[in-house]
């Protein structure tokens, strides 16, 4: 009986303990699976983030980089304390990640990166850093105003407070989109002005949105943008008026139909009016015009010019004229380069041609001058980039 009990115990031990054979299980005493791989081993992937954790005064452009060795990046997120994320892209080979935009100045960022090794094991790394506080900054003064309704010729025009030496970086940080969609391109006039427009005049009813993501952009060495804002405007009805300086008339076309033909007086033979496409940029019911401010010395100083609408920076206006006789309009060119319409002193009469045109025009409307014995207006003299071909504009 004792012999039988001992034998039974040995059988139980053999069945449960595996004896001298490992065929009954899938693990060996060393903790390896059947393929020889060690379970619970650390990932071989190594994530490196630059700048280092806790760094401050970090450059807003070119300093942020994430790489992986012995593995591939699978996730990289970068965001500031407000949760705003920085867009970026993982390289096709998974070895690196680069931001697709610059960072903002004086901002704390958190970086979370995950890489995976050849066996699918993940390794993660988290860091924080703070960008530099710019000592010198610039902003862009823009037109048109947020929420405004403007004419079909209105460009987006941005004038920077400092001369820009890295225009590509600045332009990349500005987006202009239209609904309905149409390609919109930027063009630099000098180093401090950037305008955007489509190939042809905007379609009536278009909504345009502009995003200025300039905060942190190094526009020139040591000088950083500090704007991060959006604005939008709407294109109203289409109105294009054509002045024929020879015929001394102005035809007003709205939404493709002529609605008015107004007799005018243009520039006199010695002070002719520019030819070309011009955009109304300002409106004044009454304003002062002094010849000394535009190179005409003391030839005139009229303190109450009615219904004035600016067409150029150099002083070209379409405006009311109460000092010339009624018979002048449509028969003689007598101005100092402006386009004059019959009016009354004080701008009180709503029935004059000038009052009608003023009340039926908005900022951004187009006025085209032709058949004047003068040159074409320079595209940067006012909001008049339409005088450049599309190939010139996009070059």
Automatic annotation (TrEMBL):
<dbReference type="GO" id="GO:0071555">
    <property type="term" value="P:cell wall organization"/>
</dbReference>
<dbReference type="InterPro" id="IPR041280">
    <property type="entry name" value="Big_10"/>
</dbReference>
<feature type="domain" description="L,D-TPase catalytic">
    <location>
        <begin position="239"/>
        <end position="370"/>
    </location>
</feature>
<comment type="pathway">
    <text>Glycan biosynthesis.</text>
</comment>
<keyword id="KW-0808">Transferase</keyword>
<dbReference type="InterPro" id="IPR050979">
    <property type="entry name" value="LD-transpeptidase"/>
</dbReference>
<keyword id="KW-0573">Peptidoglycan synthesis</keyword>
<feature type="active site" description="Nucleophile">
    <location>
        <position position="338"/>
    </location>
</feature>
<dbReference type="GO" id="GO:0016746">
    <property type="term" value="F:acyltransferase activity"/>
</dbReference>
<feature type="active site" description="Proton donor/acceptor">
    <location>
        <position position="319"/>
    </location>
</feature>
<keyword id="KW-0961">Cell wall biogenesis/degradation</keyword>
<keyword id="KW-0732">Signal</keyword>
<dbReference type="GO" id="GO:0005576">
    <property type="term" value="C:extracellular region"/>
</dbReference>
<keyword id="KW-0449">Lipoprotein</keyword>
<dbReference type="Pfam" id="PF03734">
    <property type="entry name" value="YkuD"/>
</dbReference>
<keyword id="KW-0133">Cell shape</keyword>
<comment type="pathway">
    <text>Cell wall biogenesis; peptidoglycan biosynthesis.</text>
</comment>
<protein>
    <submittedName>
        <fullName>Lipoprotein</fullName>
    </submittedName>
</protein>
<dbReference type="InterPro" id="IPR005490">
    <property type="entry name" value="LD_TPept_cat_dom"/>
</dbReference>
<keyword id="KW-1003">Cell membrane</keyword>
<dbReference type="Pfam" id="PF17964">
    <property type="entry name" value="Big_10"/>
</dbReference>
<feature type="compositionally biased region" description="Basic and acidic residues">
    <location>
        <begin position="24"/>
        <end position="36"/>
    </location>
</feature>
<feature type="signal peptide">
    <location>
        <begin position="1"/>
        <end position="17"/>
    </location>
</feature>
<dbReference type="InterPro" id="IPR038063">
    <property type="entry name" value="Transpep_catalytic_dom"/>
</dbReference>
<keyword id="KW-0564">Palmitate</keyword>
<dbReference type="GO" id="GO:0018104">
    <property type="term" value="P:peptidoglycan-protein cross-linking"/>
</dbReference>
<keyword id="KW-0472">Membrane</keyword>
<dbReference type="GO" id="GO:0071972">
    <property type="term" value="F:peptidoglycan L,D-transpeptidase activity"/>
</dbReference>
<dbReference type="GO" id="GO:0008360">
    <property type="term" value="P:regulation of cell shape"/>
</dbReference>
<keyword id="KW-0012">Acyltransferase</keyword>
<feature type="region of interest" description="Disordered">
    <location>
        <begin position="19"/>
        <end position="39"/>
    </location>
</feature>
């Amino acid at each position: 009986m004792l012999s039988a009990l001992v034998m039974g115990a040995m059988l139980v031990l053999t069945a449960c303990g595996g004896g001298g054979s490992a065929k009954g299980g899938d693990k060996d005493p060393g903790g390896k699976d059947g393929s020889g791989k060690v379970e619970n081993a650390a990932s071989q992937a190594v994530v490196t983030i630059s700048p280092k954790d806790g760094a401050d005064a970090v450059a807003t452009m070119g300093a942020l980089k994430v790489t992986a060795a012995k593995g591939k990046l699978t996730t990289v997120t970068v965001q500031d304390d407000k949760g705003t994320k920085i867009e970026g892209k993982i390289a096709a080979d998974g070895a690196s990640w680069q931001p697709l935009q610059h960072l903002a100045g004086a901002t704390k960022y958190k970086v979370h990166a995950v890489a995976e090794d050849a066996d699918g094991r993940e390794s993660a790394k988290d860091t924080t850093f703070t960008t530099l506080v710019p000592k010198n900054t610039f902003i862009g003064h823009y037109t048109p105003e947020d929420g405004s309704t403007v004419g079909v010729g209105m460009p987006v025009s941005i004038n920077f407070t400092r001369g820009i030496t890295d225009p590509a970086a600045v332009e990349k940080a500005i987006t202009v989109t239209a609904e309905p969609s149409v390609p919109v391109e930027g063009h630099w006039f000098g180093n401090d002005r950037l305008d955007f427009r489509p190939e042809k005049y905007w379609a009536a009813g278009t909504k345009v949105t502009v995003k200025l993501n300039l905060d942190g952009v190094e526009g020139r060495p040591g000088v950083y943008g500090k704007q991060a804002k959006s604005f939008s405007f709407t294109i109203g009805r289409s109105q294009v008026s054509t002045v024929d300086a020879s015929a001394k008339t102005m035809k007003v076309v709205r939404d493709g139909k002529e609605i008015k033909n107004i007799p005018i007086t243009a520039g006199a033979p010695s002070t002719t009016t520019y030819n070309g496409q011009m955009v109304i940029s300002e409106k004044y019911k009454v304003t002062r015009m002094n010849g000394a401010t535009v190179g005409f010395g003391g030839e005139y100083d009229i303190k109450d010019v009615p219904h004035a609408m600016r067409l150029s920076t150099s002083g070209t206006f379409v405006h009311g004229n109460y000092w010339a006789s009624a018979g002048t309009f449509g028969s003689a060119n007598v101005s100092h380069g402006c386009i004059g319409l019959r009016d009354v002193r004080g701008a009180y009469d709503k029935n004059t041609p000038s009052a009608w045109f003023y009340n039926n025009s908005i900022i951004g409307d187009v006025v085209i001058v032709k058949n004047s014995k003068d040159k074409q207006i320079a595209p940067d003299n006012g909001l008049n980039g339409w005088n450049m071909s599309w190939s010139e504009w996009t070059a």
